[in-house]
Amino acid sequence: MGYFPFFIDIKGKKALIVGGGTVASRKAEKLMPFEPELTVVAPAVSRELAENEKIICKEREFMEDDVEGCLFVIAASGDRALNQRVAQLCSKKNILVNVADDREACGFLFPALVKEGKLTVGISTEGASPQTAAGIRSRTARELPGRMEEILDYLEELRTDAGERIADSHKRAGFLKEAADLCMEKDRPLSKEETENLCAFYVNLSKKRNSPVVTLVGAGCGAFDLITLKGLNAVRKAQVLVYDDLVDSRLLAHAPESCEKVYVGKRRGRHSMPQEEINILLAKKAKQGKNVVRLKGGDPFVFGRGGEEMLALKKEGIEVREIPGITSSIAVPALAGIPVTCRGMSGSFHVITGHTAKGESLPEDPKILAALKGTLVFLMGAKHLGEIAGMLTAYGKSPETPAAVVQGNFKGQVRAVRGTLGNIAQKAEEAGMDSPLVIVVGQTAGVDLLS
Fold first, then answer.
1. pLDDT tens-digit readout, 167-212
2. Fewer beta carbons within 10 angstroms: which end of the chain, N or C?
3. Is residue 358 annotated as part of the catalytic site, yes or no?
4. Which domain-ending residue is among 203, 230, 250?
5. Do residue 295 and residue 362 come from a single domain?
6. Is the pTM of this model over 0.85?
7. Of the residues 292, 311, 326, which one is the last residue of a structural domain?
8. Of these residues, 66, 171, 248, 266, which one is catalytic?
9. Phi, psi (5° rounding) for residue 352?
10. Could you tell me which residues come within 8 angstroms of residue 410 by beta carbon, excluding any fewer than 6 positions away?
11. Which domain holds residue 92?
12. What is the pLDDT of residues 356-393, one digit of tens each?
């Protein structure tokens, strides 16, 4: 079942709690900051409820007429049969009901709440784990500025002021967004001088659109939390987000709700958009004056075609910025306990593409690669694993050279198969390893720092 988190105004609306004990008190405590007209009915009402002047307490048995005119009802009597009776009555009358400790009987659930002035955050696990929701609530509350209530009061007044002073809707939206960002960064409302300076800047902005800019952002590899803070901030400000297949979808939630998200699906065997079309798309969106973010798995400049996109955009007179990401050539082996360098074993590492546009498995001279003493890391080589191992041994690498293939996922988990150049292809096939894989060849491939 999916519970949509509606936010509704309950101020002055009639509501009822059936029950007067601890659970009823907790429910009432959550509700009172939102100022409903709340009535509690129970044969015995706790002192905490009875002493609250904003709650109407009726110390008697529940009667069916009590639910009339209610926007919602809470059954928290401690008597399961009574709670079921209340739930069935509300269902017949199309009144939303919450039944304590009985998710199946609920028409709505109570979220874990964070409330700071006008800010309300509701967290729900659909009843699966209230403890998890409470933990997330606690972490969310810690992240909020200490003066959140003041900040929101200030920003609410600023919206009215901006409407009168900045006629252009795009400039006004930019002003309000930057003011909000600055308040959160400074943990306070802006001063009068800061507000005036910022407003003057937007009022005096040239009517000509800003120079087009595209930001290439490395999303890191695997789980979404491996992106850099700078990269995440770029995503949060994007007006257009163009993203690849190997990007954790949880990153997309950090983009503004109004952001246009374009999936281009770059991955071997299922390219949904040719590279030339991606270049054209990026240029087109940037020339519309939009803040374009190109989100790429790993690092844009490590086999991510970031260089190609940057050169194509520069030819169009578009400014391009690059925010590095954590490359899978280092991180995925590390997650499996394999260091790409280790004193006494490997003093260098070399990152090689496992396939090219023409389909060759080794674009570099295999004789040179076979002679290298450091760690060899092949990306995008799952389809050519047997050929890679065969060529390296054919040109001088010992078949007993340690080798490993590592596969990561968006949960930060990895699967690794270890062997030698002589048997790694067979072992990987037997283990059902599939792309995307990182292939590691060299002495460190035999290391497992996690065991």
1. 988 889 889 988 998 998 888 999 999 999 999 988 887 554 457 8
2. C
3. no
4. 203
5. no
6. no
7. 326
8. 266
9. -130, 140
10. 222, 223, 224, 248, 249, 250
11. 14-110
12. 545 555 556 888 989 999 999 999 888 899 999 999 99
